[in-house]
């Protein structure tokens, strides 16, 4: 007899649950500047959500000096580390996670953060008691593994019974690649029309707004 898998909500973290989008933008900008790469902050911000390697590929192109990639990533990580003790959750973030868990839904975090950054993000959220799983770039992932697909597999969730919540067009695209509905939040700095145009199933201002509208959101169909 086949046992039904639980339904769940997967959450991006940076810019979705914790207010880090512009901190990452500044950190990448300075790390690139130190590597003599002058990239406008607007271009960097629009690339957030790709993951570090794809971000550098997008901003600097395939013909770049790849030997500098590790130095730029280290520069970003070192600069961002200065903010770790000051990270703050976005409005309603922890309450949203708890509301999803209260509906019997698995709550899973999906992030490209490394282990040290993830620890700071979790400390800012203060919601470990309802987080059922975390898949991060710092985890032991196979080369080239898709973070979202890996998170689904590790949490034992079916694609037909999950929703992904993110703040960038890249989050929407990643969910669309797996035929998963994505709820877009504008609190990471990407506009409502752009998220909707990328294919978001619904768009809210921030976690608090999604929490207020949870009963009418794609999450309600899962419970």
From TrEMBL:
GO molecular function: phosphoglycolate phosphatase activity
Domain of life of the source: Bacteria
GO BP: any one term: DNA repair
Gene3D superfamilies hit by this protein: HAD superfamily/HAD-like, Putative phosphatase, domain 2
Listed InterPro entries: HAD-like_hydrolase_sf, HAD-like_sf, HAD_sf, PGP-like_dom2
Keywords carried by this UniProt record: Hydrolase
CC annotations in GO: cytosol
Listed PANTHER family: BLL8046 PROTEIN, PHOSPHOGLYCOLATE PHOSPHATASE
Name by which UniProt lists this protein: Phosphoglycolate phosphatase-like HAD superfamily hydrolase
Species, as recorded: Micromonospora pisi
């Amino acid at each position: 007899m086949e046992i039904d898998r639980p339904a769940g909500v997967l959450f991006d973290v940076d810019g979705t649950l914790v207010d880090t989008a512009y901190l990452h933008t500044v950190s990448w900008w300075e790390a690139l500047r130190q590597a003599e790469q002058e990239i406008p902050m607007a271009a960097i911000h629009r690339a957030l959500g790709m993951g570090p390697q794809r971000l550098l590929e997008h901003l600097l192109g395939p013909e770049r000096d790849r030997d500098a990639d590790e130095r730029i990533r280290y520069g970003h990580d070192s600069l961002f580390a200065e903010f770790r003790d000051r990270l703050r959750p976005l409005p309603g973030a922890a309450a949203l996670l708890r509301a999803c868990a209260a509906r019997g839904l698995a709550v899973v975090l999906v992030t490209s953060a490394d282990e040290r950054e993830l620890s700071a993000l979790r400390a800012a959220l203060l919601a470990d008691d309802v987080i059922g799983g975390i898949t991060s770039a710092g985890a032991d992932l196979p080369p080239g593994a898709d973070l979202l697909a890996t998170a689904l597999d590790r949490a034992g969730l079916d694609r037909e019974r999950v929703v992904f919540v993110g703040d960038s067009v890249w989050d929407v695209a990643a969910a669309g690649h797996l035929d998963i509905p994505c709820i877009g939040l504008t609190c990471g700095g990407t506009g409502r029309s752009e998220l909707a145009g990328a294919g978001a199933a619904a768009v809210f201002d921030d976690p608090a707004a999604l929490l207020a509208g949870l009963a009418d959101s794609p999450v309600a169909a899962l419970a």
